[in-house]
Design goal:
Layout: H1 2-15, E1 22-23, E2 26-28, E3 32-39, E4 51-58, E5 64-70, E6 77-81, E7 86-88, E8 97-101, E9 104-109, E10 112-121, E11 129-141, E12 145-157, H2 166-175, E13 178-179, E14 184-190, E15 193-199, E16 210-214, E17 227-231, E18 234-240, E19 251-258, E20 265-272, H3 279-289, H4 308-321, H5 329-341, H6 346-376, H7 390-407, H8 413-416, H9 419-427, H10 429-444, H11 452-459, H12 464-486, H13 489-494, H14 500-508, H15 510-528, H16 530-551, H17 557-578, H18 584-590, E21 600-601, H19 604-612, E22 617-622, H20 627-634, H21 640-648, E23 652-657, H22 663-671, E24 679-683, E25 691-693, H23 699-707
Parallel strand pairs: 13-20, 14-20, 21-23, 22-23
Antiparallel strand pairs: 1-2, 2-3, 3-4, 4-10, 5-9, 6-11, 7-10, 8-9, 11-12, 14-15, 15-18, 16-19, 17-18, 19-20, 22-24, 24-25
Length: 710
């Protein structure tokens, strides 16, 4: 039975994805309508003007970002695929506007945005049409930020003019800042600020307030209002430098906009004087000068810094440690049962170990292949994504219920399966060992063991073959302890000979299966609410009744027919009750788990606001289906010493809940070089990035890390 339910469970992974609606040149999300446009008034000819543009139509109150996004955010990026003899230029950005968010100021756009790009057509292009492909990525924000992307295709005829969107391109050109070559712009470095002087600005602007927006990010304090004045025709201002400054440019292009102006001007400002040390350099110097006992621990190297060989080695070690994770314990109980059954047959023990290894490695590689394919299709997914699907969780709960009932003796698979299937199962016991490996991966994959995090983060950035190599190494590491044990004779000799004790031991092993069902029902309750959990429990009761009615050896033929018909009807009714609670809209309606008084929901904006106020931040990237996450949450993160240390340093405690699919959390994990949970990030003001703690926390590690904060 479980041999046939497992493929069904794995197939639900792909079936529960929610694709974004897309046309060849249009991508629509709940926040943005993105469309690829073309404009070639003279056809496509060498030396003639040709333009492409991505038009973003934002929903009310949503916005995207400029090339310098300001204090937070990311600029929109365009990656073109064009035929030979055709090249794309840079985005000609429209004039942005300041977007104040609390104590921060960003630069970006709302409403309708055109991002035009000029094309250069060289001699030798003579195709009948121009085939354009574009991959675009943008970050759209309101109260939360959502990374989105789209793939666009457009076929533009070469001989005919394409001028349907001429007014849109003309408006985009009019909204772009005008380079003011005759302007004289300089800035002197004075006491942590830029003393700016700009001469040669438009006469109509003189006497008006100007907005100062540098094209180089990480230089000025965007939220600090410049002290500005006009002296005759010269605009002077004192612009504060950012406390977290990361750039020291000798020249800096700046966009200036007068109040009421539809477009700005661009000036190239020369900067005189010696830049003060960067914030990151100051922090490094302070750390080096501090006593070793007080120096804050350094963040682990990003996953991209790992070589493939090192990543494979870490994956192998992490896979072996995965056997110590609580989520794997029920599967290990099945392996112990199989080990005891074949303890006196060394050949069967070894072949069973090899089959289990094949099942584990093949499942890791197969699951990784599905993940890579879905990510290539635009899905924002990470490791353990299958348990973000309520349907998969429900199928897994049903499977563990059946296994537990079988171990407890409620029913026998031989009584349910056709006799030919039962005989084939007896002739091929290695299939059971391999399927146990598949089941182990289905349950263990949501967990991230020590040493696995960096390898998973790197795998997400590598070509498919190299990525699958890393996932295969994780599977090999997970299977390695059992494989070595099955090949080591002293272990087999240490076990008692088969006897009555094995029947009792088999019944005992049913209880870890039922404990796993309790966990899975709780996970589903976190995803779809109490009604969904109750519906699943009702379905599991009906399933248990059907298993007993159809497979109990104690029932006669007539009783089995009567009870079997009743059980099938009850199971069908339970499924009709349960399935609507697992739909996507039901999951969305369930909402996010409520935050407690101490932990608040995570968002990138909350992190940036706290750091701008000089307050440290601790982020717990977690999920209900991650057993390691829940263990850390209820032990270390609830420890009075840890909470007292966090309170003493006024640390803002945020929880990023990944129980349901969340593209923003997926993107942030990728930025941290990780691809699964748990991840624990400790941010300190004035540093370039967070310190990542280990996957299995200890009170001492958290307390010491927090104690080292300034």
């Amino acid at each position: 039975m479980h041999r046939r339910l497992l493929p069904i469970a794995l197939l639900t992974i792909a079936a529960t994805s929610t694709p974004v609606f897309a046309e060849p040149a249009v991508v629509v999300t709940d926040q943005v309508r993105a469309e690829l446009l073309a404009h070639s008034p003279d056809g496509i000819q060498p030396g003639k003007p040709m333009w492409l543009a991505l038009r973003l139509t934002h929903q009310p109150q949503w916005h995207t970002y400029w090339k310098n996004p300001g204090d937070s955010g990311l600029p929109t990026t365009l990656t073109w695929t064009l035929p030979p003899n055709v090249t794309a230029g840079e985005i000609e950005w429209p004039t942005p506007k300041p977007l104040p968010v609390g104590p921060l100021v960003n630069f970006g756009y709302d409403g309708v945005l055109m991002l035009p790009v000029p094309l250069k057509v060289a001699e030798g292009f003579n195709a009948e049409s121009l085939d354009v492909k574009l991959h675009a990525e943008w970050l759209v924000c309101k109260d939360v930020c959502i990374p989105e992307s789209g793939d666009f295709a457009l076929q533009v005829p070469s001989r005919a003019a394409t001028a349907a969107h001429g007014a849109d391109f003309a408006a985009a050109k009019a909204s772009a800042p005008v380079p003011l070559e005759t302007a004289q712009a300089t800035a002197d470095l004075q006491d942590g600020a830029l003393a700016v002087r700009v001469a040669g600005l438009p006469v109509a602007w003189q006497g008006k307030a100007l907005t100062f927006m540098p094209e180089t990010a990480g230089v000025i304090d965007n939220a600090a209002k410049p002290a500005a004045q006009w002296k005759d025709a010269v605009w002077e201002a004192r612009v504060a430098l950012s406390p977290q400054r990361s750039e020291s440019p000798p020249r800096m292009p700046v966009v200036l906009v007068a109040d009421g102006a539809a477009a700005g001007v661009q000036v190239n400002m020369a900067i005189n004087g010696t830049w003060p040390a960067l914030a990151s350099a100051v922090g490094a110097a302070e750390t080096a000068a501090a006593p070793a006992a007080l120096a804050p621990p350094q963040a682990p190297a990003p996953a991209s810094d790992l070589g493939l060989a090192a990543a494979v080695l870490l994956a192998l070690v992490g896979g072996a440690l995965l056997n110590l994770m609580p989520c794997v314990f029920p599967i290990l109980s099945l392996k112990v049962l199989g080990f005891a059954t074949h303890a006196q047959d060394r050949r069967a023990l070894l072949t069973g170990g090899l089959a289990y290894t094949v099942g584990v490695v093949a499942s890791f590689v197969g699951l990784a292949g599905v993940l890579i394919a879905l990510r290539a299709g635009g899905e924002q997914l990470g490791w353990g994504f299958q348990l973000q699907s309520p349907v998969f969780v429900a199928v897994l709960a049903a499977l563990f219920t059946l296994i537990g009932l079988n171990l407890a003796g409620v029913f026998a698979f031989g009584s349910v399966l056709p006799s030919s299937w039962a005989a084939a199962r007896a002739r091929h016991p290695l299939v059971d060992s391999a399927l146990t490996g598949v089941l182990a991966v289905a349950v263990a994959s949501p967990c991230t063991a020590p040493f696995m995090g960096a390898s998973l983060g790197l795998a997400a950035t590598l070509p498919p073959v190299q990525a699958l190599t890393i996932f295969g190494a994780i599977g090999a590491g997970m299977a390695l302890p059992y494989l070595l044990a099955s090949a080591w004779p002293p272990i087999a000799r240490a076990l008692p000979r088969p006897g009555v004790w094995m029947s009792h031991f088999k019944s005992l092993m049913a209880f870890p299966m039922f404990a796993t069902v309790v966990w899975l029902v709780w996970v589903l309750g976190q995803q779809v609410g109490i009604d969904g959990a109750a519906a699943l429990l009702g379905t599991l009761v009906a399933l248990a009744f059907a298993a007993w009615a159809l497979g109990s050896p104690a029932l006669g033929r007539r009783a089995r027919v009567g009870f079997g018909a009743l059980s099938v009807a009850l199971l069908g009714a339970a499924l009709l009750w349960a399935l609507p609670t697992l739909r996507h809209d039901a999951v969305a309606a369930a909402g996010a788990p409520a935050a407690d008084a101490r932990w608040q929901p995570w968002s990138p904006l909350r992190v940036q606001e706290a750091l701008a106020q000089g307050r440290p931040v601790f982020v717990d990237f977690t999920a209900a289906w991650c057993v390691t996450c829940q263990y850390n949450k209820r032990t270390v993160l609830a420890d009075p010493e840890v909470l007292a240390a966090l309170d003493a340093k006024r640390v803002l405690m945020l929880r990023a809940d990944w129980t349901r699919r969340d593209a923003a959390i997926t993107a942030e994990l990728a930025r941290l070089g990780r691809n699964g949970v748990p991840v624990y990030a400790l941010y300190s003001p004035g540093t370039t990035g967070p310190r990542l703690l280990s996957e299995i926390l200890s009170v001492r590690e958290v307390r010491d890390s927090v104690g080292a904060l300034p």
